[in-house]
Amino acid sequence: MSKKIKFQTKSLGSEPGPALNKEDLVSWIQSRAGLGGDLARYRFQKPLIYQREVNVDIPCAGGIFYRDRLLECLAGIDNGKITGELGLNPGLMKTDICEVVRKTDPLWVAMPGTDRLALTDGYYGDPEEAARNLFFWYRRMMREMRDSGADGHILICDHTTEEELEALCGRRIIFFLQDPDCKSLEMLLEHQRTIAVQVTAIDLVVSLKEEYPVDNLILVDPTTTGLEKTLAHWEKDHIYVGGYCQENCQEYWKNIVNTASFQPSSE
Q1: 212-242 residue pLDDT tens
Q2: CB within 8 Å of 265: residues ≥ 6 apart
Q3: Contact by Cβ (8 Å): 6, 262
Q4: Strands 194-198 and 261-262
Q5: Neighbouring-strand partners of residue 235
Q6: Alpha carbons 243 and 96: distance in angstroms, whole number
Q7: Can you give the pLDDT at residue 1?
Q8: Among 3.40.50.970, 3.10.280.10, 3.30.450.180, 3.20.20.210, what is the CATH number of 5-260?
Q9: Any idea which of 13-27, 72-86, 137-151, 194-208 has the lowest mean pLDDT?
Q10: According to the model, what pLDDT value does residue 267 have?
């Protein structure tokens, strides 16, 4: 029988469930006497607790829902519209980070890519200038969070652009395209050597691997077949079992950790 393999687990973030657990929220509020907090902070912290309970190797707080907090912290935006010079008031997000950082544990933060902010420009009058300014302050936001203890960021996108990738890609920033096609993956691989994809995109990544270096693969919600396929193209230490929770996160993260203990089929 083949030896059991244990892959590292990496979170790409979580989304709040469709129904708010009011009893749990009340309990959280009561436990924070003197600390304050809001719904965004509760949603930021709760899935992280589940990840740490089951020992996800690289946990991650946040998700697309964190958009509301980002818009609170970005100056010059009113009701989804850029109405003045963009700027940053980072206090709330820095507190979000400081409350969950542990010195001995890694912590990444997931947030929407700039496309998911769905902003319209009513100030700069030029799409390229508006985008350049938004990218500048987005990068500044992430720097502020890293200065507060975050190790890196996951940017969850429907799509991205060459300009956004050039402005934001870095060693501690991973773009997670949720439904990539060949063209978008090629563009991403021009800038990023760690790729996060669903099982359905493995063959596409493998086909591009001959032309573009793919150092690390994060396989999201993997199947046994998917893990076996990746082992034919990457060493174990360069494969991560990834998770992006969209409901029932307590059970979801248990399942992700269980999936990471993998028994290859015997040849």
Answers
A1: 999 999 999 999 889 999 999 999 999 999 9
A2: 2, 228
A3: yes
A4: unpaired
A5: none
A6: 21
A7: 54
A8: 3.20.20.210
A9: 13-27
A10: 52
Yes or no: say if 152 and 176 are a contact pair by the CB < 8 Å rule: no
Length of the chain: 267
Place of tokens 């190797």: 57
